[in-house]
DNA sequence: CCGCATCCTCTCGGATACTG
DNA sequence: CAGTATCCGAGAGGATGCGG
């Protein structure tokens, strides 16, 4: 687990090579669709929104605001709009009084949250190491 | 591939439940180590740096700047410092004239780039869908 | 060549108050 | 309840020039 063999390394490089045919460094950043899509999907607030919607199938605006701790009205509604436009979530408004709006993941959003979850789990497992590294580095 | 069964959904929820014992919404954001570590590691520029260092075992400052298209001196050196502090990369300076500095991934960075790569591949595969969704949404 | 220091711009995002 | 509108401040980040 601690050592990476040469063959593993080459395997990774192969994958990256495939990737970087698309993330071509000679293209202007705004012409790279992967960068573009990632910048929305891996935004800090967006990821939290998606993760919570992965946990609760349906959430209303103020619940979401409560769980995504620290987010403001403005940013929450911005992110929700963009995430809806990109196809990760759906918005359902019920014309009651007071109005009720429910957000949930689309099928597409469901497939994304799985990927996101893998990364987050890695983060959770490894954050102690990172914090320890930081500590050590601070002493140099 | 297009449908998500109930059991899959529940499985995802279970994982998230495990996660959210740590990303507790009642904690202030600055006390959540996962948020903290993620904000560095999944930063837009940082991910590109790490991916390129996953592709090329060793890169010098100006090469890196070339591949991570659009990044400025300032941001590149900032990110490199933080990524070094967090243990993803190493910096080796050779006291020649002119000086030569080489960056590469640590073992830890290698393990991260694999995870990152999975996410990036998903992005690459699915970015057309997202762009199509955006298009459709724009017409509403 | 590496990358810091400076300056300056400009967007993001927080707070608050208000409306359908 | 679910946002929008407005204002405002902080700070991220770009450009440039210099120094080790």
**Main sheet attributes: strand count, strand direction, barrel closure of chain A:** 3 strands, antiparallel
Work out the oligomeric state of the chains in this entry. Answer: homodimer
What does the radius of gyration of chain A come to? Answer: 19 Å
CATH architecture assignment of chain A: Orthogonal Bundle
CATH class designation of chain A: Mainly Alpha
State the largest interface. A-B, 73 and 71 residues
Give the terminus-to-terminus CA distance of chain A: 27 Å
Number of strands of chain A: 3
Structural class of chain A: mainly alpha
Please state how the strands of the largest beta sheet of chain A are arranged side by side: 1-3-2
CATH fold-level topology of chain A: Arc Repressor Mutant, subunit A
For CATH, the homologous superfamily of chain A is named as Winged helix-like DNA-binding domain superfamily/Winged helix DNA-binding domain
Q: Uncertain segments of chain A of ≥5 residues (pLDDT<50)?
A: none
In DSSP terms (H or I, runs of 4 or more residues), the helix count of chain A works out at: 6
Note the run of SSEs of chain A as H and E.
HHHEHHEEH
Notes on the structure:
2 copies of one chain form a homodimer. Helix content of chain A is 64%, strand content 10%. Chain A has 140 residues and is mainly alpha-helical. Chain A has one domain (32-136): Winged helix-like DNA-binding domain superfamily/Winged helix DNA-binding domain (Arc Repressor Mutant, subunit A, Orthogonal Bundle), CATH 1.10.10.10. Chain A has a 3-stranded antiparallel beta sheet with strand order 1-3-2. Chain A starts with 5 loop residues before the first helix and ends with a helix. The model of chain A has no long low-confidence stretch (mean pLDDT 85). Chains A and B meet through helix 1, helix 2, helix 3 and helix 6 of A and helix 1, helix 2, helix 3 and helix 6 of B. Chain B binds a DNA duplex (20 and 20 nucleotides) through helix 5.
């Amino acid at each position: 687990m601690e050592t990476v063999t040469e063959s593993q390394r080459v395997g990774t490089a192969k994958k990256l090579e495939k990737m970087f045919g698309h993330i071509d460094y000679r293209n202007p950043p705004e012409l790279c669709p992967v960068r573009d899509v990632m910048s929305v999907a891996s935004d800090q607030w967006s990821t939290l929104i998606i993760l919570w919607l992965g946990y609760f199938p349906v959430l209303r605006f103020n619940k979401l605001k409560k769980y995504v701790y620290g987010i403001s009205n403005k940013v929450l509604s911005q992110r929700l709009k963009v995430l809806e436009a990109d196809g990760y979530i759906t918005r359902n408004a019920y014309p009651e009084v007071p109005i009720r709006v429910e957000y949930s993941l689309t099928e597409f959003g469901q497939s994304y949250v799985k990927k996101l979850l893998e990364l987050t789990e890695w983060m959770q497992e490894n954050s102690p190491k990172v914090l320890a590294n930081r500590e050590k580095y601070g002493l140099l």
